[in-house]
Amino acid sequence: MAGKHKVRQGRVISDKMAKTVVVEVQNTEKHPLYHKNIIKTVKYKAHDENKISKVGDVVNIIETAPISHDKRWRVAEVVVKGDVVEIKPTEVV
Question: Is the pLDDT of residue 3 over 90?
Answer without folding.
Answer: no
